[in-house]
Each structure stands twice: as C-alpha cells, then as structure tokens.
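To illustrate the input format used throughout this study, we show a single complete record. The first block contains the structure-token representation of the backbone; no residue identities are included at this stage. The design step must infer an amino acid for every position from geometry alone.
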C-alpha cells in the first residue's frame, strides 16, 4: 500500500503549489503525489546582499539588517538551493521551511549551509535546521527548519535569506489542525476557535492509514487514481474529487463515495481518509491550505517518516537536533 515505487522523482514533488487539475499519478497509497513542482522562493539577491557577496564569501562583511555574517565561507551549493514555500505565500502553521539541493551536501559542509540559511521571524521563535532523508532524494539533499515548540504562531511573518542568493518572505496563516481518530471513524477539525467533527472512513485492516502528524503538501480538485500504480491490481481506477495531499507515498484526504455509507462506521479505504459526497469533502477542501496539519491516531500503521512528505513533527526535539549540524537558533 505505502511501498514507494517512485525513487526517480525529484524534490520538486514536494512543492507547495495548489493545483486544480486532473493528475494521473504513479506511486503509492491511494495514489502518488500531485507532481506540482517545487516553487523556488522568488526574488534575486537584494542589492546589499549582492554588493557584499564577495566579502561574505571570504567570511567577512555583514548580512542584511546589520546581522554579522557567519565566520565560515558561504557554500557554493546555496546558489542552487530550492525552497518549498513561494515568496509572498501564506501557509498553515505546520509547514516547515524545506530547502533541497541538486546534489548531496557533504557532512563537512552542512554546518556552513545551516549558518548561511538565515531565518528571521516576527515572533522570535526558537528553531533549528535538520537534515531530513527525503523519500525520493539522497541523504544530504534536503534540510528543513521548524520551530522547537509545536507549530508556528499564527500571524508570524518569516524571512529566509539564502546567503547572497536571495530573500524569501512568507506568512503563517490561521491555525487549522485536523485530528483523525481511526477507531472512532471521526475527524476533528479545530480552526479559528471553532471545532467541527466529521465522520470518516480510513484504511481497512492490512491497508491501514499512516499514523502520526502530516502536513498538507498541496491539493487538487480532481485526481485520477489507479490501483495498478500501487500494486493492487485492478481494484480501482477512477477520478476522486477534493483531494488534499498528505504524503509523498500517496496519502490523501479526499471524497470517496463509499464514505456515504461507511464514514463513521467502518474503515474500508486503501489507506486514504475518505469523506462523503454530500458536500463534506468539498467543505474540508475549501477551508484547507498548504501547511495545515492532519494528525492520525489509533492506526495500526507505522508513524509517518520525516521525509515522507513533511513528517517533521513526528520527531522529538532531541531527535530533530540529532540531525542538525549547527544546532538550535533564535529567529528574532
């Protein structure tokens, strides 16, 4: 069900773009990822950064806003860094900053990379970079930043400086956290001070839904799902609507006609979370944005790996720091 068959895919599959299209998908879970493409943080280096690039490459000078540059030379690999959040985008509270590279960064260079990837926030959060083994990349090709405490504070403005190679700005929107209780066949959605309880059907025994915390990667109004692509023969092939994408291995929250009778009663899906066709699925789809949080409890499946989409929050802070070269930092 969740065996990955897409090792050749690039980091672009983790893009945070929202696409309203029909996609033929070829990996695992209910289907594969949405192939939306990574969106590099926009903007050329600002004038001050460009003017100071040579000095900083030698370990001198200052980064913008008067902050001293790291003492170590700027790694050349930052020129090819790609960021999962577009400049000016508003994302949910769970979205980590994820930076990927076209080749693995050697262990000896990782501290310098982390130090030159400067994160500033309006809330002054404490956080850290950590090297995540992406499901479709080699070790050393992806590094993520997340706050120490659970999720970002709503309304926070975030600035990411990629050394002398550009600046990205994004905003943390309102909080939406959905909790799927597999045994109760129910999803509780908490947002804006309100709570909704939605009947669901999840993965049937043997094809259980992943356990743990996932972050919305993207969403599509219509996705063509084919059981042949996940090793399940001819069990299903058809368009599924209002699909909210949770893992690279193909987990979605989406409309499923079987949820009309089974939601709230039995788990009958191939691993996704099914919602009824009476408008329930579309209402959830409409209120969700990239970066929102979906946590699954009560499942017999393993916990989602950090690199299977954005499973970063399934690691304790100690575990997170174990894969950080530069350690904890304050983003004031």
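Output of the design step:
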């Amino acid at each position: 069900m969740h065996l990955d068959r897409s090792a050749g895919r690039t980091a672009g599959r983790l893009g945070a773009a929202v696409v309203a299209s029909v996609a033929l998908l070829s990996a695992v879970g209910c289907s594969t990822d949405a192939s939306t493409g990574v969106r590099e943080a926009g903007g050329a280096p600002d004038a001050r950064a460009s003017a100071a690039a040579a000095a900083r490459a030698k370990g001198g000078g200052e980064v913008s806003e008067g902050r001293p540059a790291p003492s170590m030379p700027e790694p050349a690999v930052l020129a090819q860094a790609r960021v999962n959040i577009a400049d000016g985008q508003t994302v949910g509270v769970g979205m980590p900053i994820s930076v990927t590279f076209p080749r693995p960064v050697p262990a000896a260079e990782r501290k310098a990379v982390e130090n030159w990837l400067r994160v500033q926030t309006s809330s002054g959060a404490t956080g850290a970079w950590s090297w995540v083994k992406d499901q479709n990349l080699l070790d050393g090709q992806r590094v993520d930043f997340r706050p120490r405490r659970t999720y970002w504070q709503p309304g926070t403005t975030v600035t990411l400086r990629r050394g002398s190679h550009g600046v990205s700005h994004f905003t943390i929107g309102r909080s939406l956290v959905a909790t799927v209780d597999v045994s109760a066949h129910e999803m509780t959605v908490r947002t804006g001070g309100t709570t909704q309880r939605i009947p669901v059907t999840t993965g049937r025994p043997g094809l259980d839904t992943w356990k743990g915390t996932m972050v919305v990667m993207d969403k599509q109004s219509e996705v063509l799902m084919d059981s042949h692509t996940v090793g399940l023969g001819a069990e299903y092939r058809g368009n599924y609507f209002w699909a909210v994408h949770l893992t690279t291995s193909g987990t979605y929250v989406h409309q499923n006609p079987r949820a009309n009778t089974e939601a709230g009663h039995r788990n009958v899906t191939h691993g996704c979370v099914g919602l009824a066709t009476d408008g329930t699925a579309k209402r959830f789809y409409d209120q969700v944005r990239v970066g929102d949080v979906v946590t699954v409890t009560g499942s017999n499946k393993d916990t989602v790996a950090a690199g299977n989409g954005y499973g970063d929050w399934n690691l304790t802070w100690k575990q997170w720091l174990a894969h950080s070269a530069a350690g904890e930092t304050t983003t004031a």
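Structural context for interpreting the output: The mean pLDDT is 84. The two ends are 43 Å apart (CA to CA).
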